[in-house]
Amino acid sequence: MGRPLKIAKAQAVLTITATGSGLGAEVTVSDNLITAPNVGVMAGMPFVVATSVGGLTANTTYYINAITGNHTFTVSTTQLSVQPQVLATLTTTTSQSVKASVAVVDAYFNNPTSGAGFPATNANTYSVVGGNTAIIGKQVLCNVAFGANGVGTVFASTSSNIVAGLGTDFANIATGTHIYAMWGGTSSHLLGTATSTHGQHNVAVANTNNSGNIIRTTGNAQTLLTGGPVAFTSNLGGLFINTTYFVLNVANSSAFTVSLTPNGAEVDLADATGTPDAAQQQVILTAASANNATGADMYGDPFQTALPEAGFIVRQKGKQKYLVTGTVTGITGAVYTANVANTALTPNTMSIIATYANSATQRVQSLSDHTGELFTSTSGTVATDTANINNSAPVFATFNSAAVANVSNAMPYSLVQIASA
Fold it and tell me: Is the pLDDT at 390 greater than 50, yes or no?
């Protein structure tokens, strides 16, 4: 694999909320400085603020002079060992939200070495680093989708944008989540992308009729998935609470029938009037389901979810395998690079964008400190794309401007700009 990707690290990334006024004034942060994970923050540590605030200038190294409270410290412009010590003169600010990175290491390359070095920028810097994108400076930005096994089973039809659930907890599914039916328990098939409508869906019932065993509604029965499970919130006309039924037929918006088993016989109903709800666990997709989901026994398929999100690289574990943290879910897990857009990522894959000097973009197959290999196929599958890695033309990586080969300081390969945050 060669030299792995260097990872930027920091003792802490604090959020400055206010600053005092005058020489030696206090900085206030939202973080507790004497409890985990910030217990290691101490006097003498350097820090850099992301944007100028209260007399502190962005991209300038300062030092924690003294921790004066759970959420406050004073600032020195020089290392504490340097005498005479110079305290920072601050100006009053309130209601701030400025990131301060404390004791940053491995956050920068300076090659050629003519630049000032971290935290200043150098337009001629070749090489990139990974790490938490909240840390000052630039880190590789990736998009990632972690797979999570769902509880219960799902039902879906290619003629509907409704995914129904049995024993599921759809209320906790985030908008934008991809839902996959696991055919045979192992084979993953995309159903679609969740909208903001997910959880228990209720359709108001008006009465039951013995003739035709029809359930009449004042709600819209056509918003129930045919073949999907349904329950009732109270007893009525032969329907019982805490019993799972299956929607058998939806005649129109105000009439449907149910069975006790998938595609079974109609439940024999009596004439009765009442107002329970027909409740169905649902996720509404952005479009009709891409695949059917019924399960081999017609009681639904196991399912998996994956939320495409921005992420950062924690460690490189192989040529195409990385340990990544998602910035939305907070999940950290091993994933593989894939040649697909963020919205098309499958469970446990990630993508990194590289941009050429002509503005053309391509996805990164493997990335180290200095060089990268880009995907040469468009299959989007790890198994197929792995076979092409030996055919990938090497490139040099940078967070600065891209350049063609043999132009920027005679770099022999194309210099590509890596997406960063």
Answer: no
Which tokens sit at 72?
């406050």
CB-count burial class (<10 Å; 0-12, 13-18, 19+) for 374: buried
Give how far the C-alpha of residue 104 lies from the chain's centroid of Cα atoms, to the nearest Å: 25
Read off the amino acid at residue 195: T
DSSP state of 385: H
- Average pLDDT for 289-306: 96
Q: How far apart are CA 196 and CA 116, in angstroms?
A: 48
The C-alpha atoms of residue 104 and residue 107 are separated, in whole angstroms, by: 7
Please tell us whether the domain made up of 1-106 is placed in CATH 2.40.128: no
- In tens, the pLDDT along 335-383 reads 999 999 998 999 999 999 999 999 999 999 999 888 899 997 444 343 4
Q: Sketch the domain layout of the chain as residue ranges.
A: 1-106, 148-306, 309-418
pLDDT at 204: 98
Q: Determine how β-strand 349-351 pairs with β-strand 332-337.
A: parallel
Mean pLDDT of 97-121: 84
* pLDDT for 77: 97
Whole-angstrom distance, CA of residue 105 vs CA of residue 214 = 70
Residue showing tokens 């605030």: 53
Q: What is the mean pLDDT of residues 230-255?
A: 98
Which is nearest to 245 in space by CA: 256, 254, 216, 253? 256
pLDDT at position 305 is: 96
Angle at 185 between CA 323 and CA 172, to 5 degrees: 60
What's the DSSP call for residue 225?
P
CB 123 within 8 A of CB 45: no
- DSSP lists the bridge partners of residue 310 as 143
The C-alpha atoms of residue 144 and residue 349 are separated, in whole angstroms, by: 6
> Residue 169: what are its φ and ψ, rounded to 5°?
-125, 70
3-state SS, one letter per residue, for 168-179: CCHHHCCCCCEE
For 30, 113, 120, 420, the CA distances from 95, given in Å and listed in that order, are 11, 39, 27, 28
Which among 310, 420, 414, 318 has a CA at the least distance from the CA of 365? 318
Distance of alpha carbon 413 from alpha carbon 396, whole angstroms: 6
Res 97 pLDDT > 70: yes
3-state helix, strand, coil in the chain (%, to 5): 5, 45, 50
